[in-house]
Structures are given as C-alpha cells and as structure tokens.
TrEMBL record:
It is found in: Cell inner membrane; Membrane. It comes from Halarcobacter mediterraneus. SUPFAM superfamilies: Fumarate reductase respiratory complex transmembrane subunits. The chain crosses the membrane at residues 26-51, 71-94, 123-145, 165-186, 213-232. This is Fumarate reductase cytochrome b subunit. The fumarate reductase enzyme complex is required for fumarate respiration. This subunit anchors the complex in the membrane and binds a diheme cytochrome b. Heme b binds at H42, H91, H141, H180. Its main location: membrane. GO terms for molecular function: metal ion binding. It comes from the Bacteria. GO terms for biological process: tricarboxylic acid cycle. GO terms for cellular component: plasma membrane. Keywords: Cell membrane, Electron transport, Heme, Iron, Membrane, Metal-binding, Transmembrane, Transmembrane helix, Transport, Tricarboxylic acid cycle. Coiled coil: none annotated.
Length: 263
C-alpha cells in the first residue's frame, strides 16, 4: 500500500522521499569501479602477447588454474566471464536511468551543457555515447569469450581477431572502453571526493591530468596489442594454419629431448 501511495504522490506516507535512487547510484558507482579496475587488469593480461607468445600462453594457462588442474580448466574463465557479464549488465541497466528519455529531454540537456561551457558536463555526453555503444559491442565480446573460453591463446585469439573478423569490433570497443573507463573513474573520484584533501580544485586539475595520461596509455597499449594479434592471425591465415593451437617452446624442447634431439 505504501508503495502505491509513493508511486502516485512521489512521497511515502511519512512524507519522505525514497532512498532507492541514492542506493542505485551507489551500486552504479561500485559496479563501475569494479569494471574500470577490471579493464586495467584485463588490458595488461591481454597485452602479454607483446612480450611473447609463450608469455601470453602462460598467462592463459594461469587463469585456467593449470597449477591445480592438469592442462588447465577453461570452465573457470567462463565462470569469471559470467560474473563480469552480470556486473556489466547491472551497470548498464543502472546507467540507462541517466540517459535522456526523449528528444526534448536531450535538447534541454544539450542546451544546458553548451550554455555552461563546463568541461566535466560535456564529459557526460561522451559517457552516455560510449556507454550506449558498449551495450552492443561489449555484450558480443563477453558472450563469445564466455562460450569459447577454451579458445583463448596466442593462436586461438589471433585467429578470432583476424580470421573471425573480430578486429573491427575490437577497434570500436577499445575506443569506447578506454574513454568510458577513464572518464568514469575520474568522475567517481570527483563525485565521492576520494582524493580531495585540503584543496579540491588542485586535486581536480591533477585528476584531469591523470585521466588524460591513462587514456593515452591504455589506448596505445590496446592498439599495439590489437595489431600484434592481427599480425599473428594474418600470418596464420597466409600459412594455412588457422585453427592450429600454439605449442609453448618449453614443450617443443621437451618433445625433442625425448627423441634425443635438441629443441
Ligand atoms: C572475464 C571476462 C573477459 C575475458 C576472459 C576477456 C578476454 C579477452 C581476450 C582473451 C582478448 C584477446 C582477443 C581474443 O581472444 O578475442 C580480449 C580482448 C579484448 N577485450 Fe576482453 N575479456 C573479458 C571481458 C571484457 C570486457 C568486460 C570488456 C569491455 C567491455 C572487454 C574488452 C576487450 C577489448 C576492447 C579487447 C581488444 C583489446 C586489444 O586487442 O587491444 N573484455 N579479451
């Protein structure tokens, strides 16, 4: 009954406003923080290919817990991907509350932002646009990874990127993720006053510099990584080796040792 009254009047019988919007804001911040930090970790793991194929292979096997299960268990990666997917969907659903509902609302917000000439208000538009794009781009990627977790590795990933045409999607996703992620973390720090100290104005300037540096850093790292997977995938396709799995150097040497030859 109380819900019904609040639904009609916007206030409870005690004439109080609901605390739900504040709680939803908090959940949106918490899921955003998790996803932002997850993406930094994810980027470092995926970029292991820039060091070597063997290193990327070792990272993959580590996440499959090969130190517990012989040869690793990709189901663990699927479970992590499912958890990330649920957090991703929760964050997106909560983010939808902030999008303008019709053209009139959009027009009001745009006029307000243009009139204020305030950089942080303009950042909101980038968040809304990149967030919307990620609804589609992010979902495709996470679903594929979740259902094909056994196909992650130096060759399997490179084949997906090149021969299975994921690179155009990754270019767009990378741009959306890096802008959305660093702007999001910056806005979180400002919103909750994490590093405010005695002089919030100087802190905000410093945070802006960090935002710019981190965006460039992860964009450069991301595109270098993507180029590396595309190159390996292209070479595999040229050599007719699509679908082959990578054998780490240590195993090749072991194999040769058993036949008496050096690897
Ligand atoms: C547990 C969840 C995830 C796993 C295991 C995972 C794994 C991977 C792997 C192995 C790659 C290399 C290419 C490939 O194999 O297809 C990759 C690339 C990529 N992932 Fe994820 N991913 C996850 C979640 C996400 C999320 C939530 C996003 C953002 C919404 C994301 C964005 C990207 C982007 C942009 C690339 C291309 C990066 C580049 O090549 O520089 N991933 N991911």
């Amino acid at each position: 009954m109380s819900d019904l009254i609040e639904g009609y009047l916007g206030k409870t019988v005690e004439r109080k406003k609901s605390r739900v919007p504040a709680k939803l804001d908090y959940i949106q911040s918490a899921t955003g923080l998790f996803l932002g930090l997850f993406m930094w970790g994810h980027m470092f793991m995926v970029s292991s290919i820039l060091i070597s194929k063997d290193f990327m292979y070792a990272v993959t096997k580590f996440f499959e817990a090969s130190f517990i299960f012989d040869g690793g268990n990709p189901l663990l990666v699927s479970i992590v991907a499912l958890v990330v997917f649920i957090i991703f969907i929760t964050h997106a659903a909560l983010g939808m509350r902030k999008l303008p509902g019709n053209f009139k609302q959009y027009q009001v917000m745009k006029a307000h932002a243009d009139n204020m000439g305030h950089e942080d208000t303009k950042l909101w538009f980038i968040q809304a646009f990149t967030g919307f794009a990620m609804f589609f781009l992010g979902s495709v990627h996470i679903y594929i990874i979740m259902t094909h977790s056994a196909d992650i590795g130096p060759y399997a990933s490179a084949d997906r990127v090149w021969s299975e045409w994921m690179w155009p999607l990754y270019i767009l996703l990378l741009l959306a993720v890096e802008f959305h992620g660093t702007i999001g973390l910056y806005r979180l720090a400002v919103k909750w006053g994490w590093f405010d100290g005695n002089d919030p104005k100087t802190t905000r300037k410093r945070l802006k510099t960090w935002k710019r540096v981190l965006t460039w850093f992860f964009l450069i790292l991301g595109f270098a990584t993507l180029a590396a997977y595309m190159k390996i995938g292209y070479e595999n396709a040229q050599a007719g080796k699509v679908g082959e799995r990578y054998t780490p150097t240590a195993k090749v040497m072991q194999l040769d040792n058993t036949t008496g030859r050096l690897g």
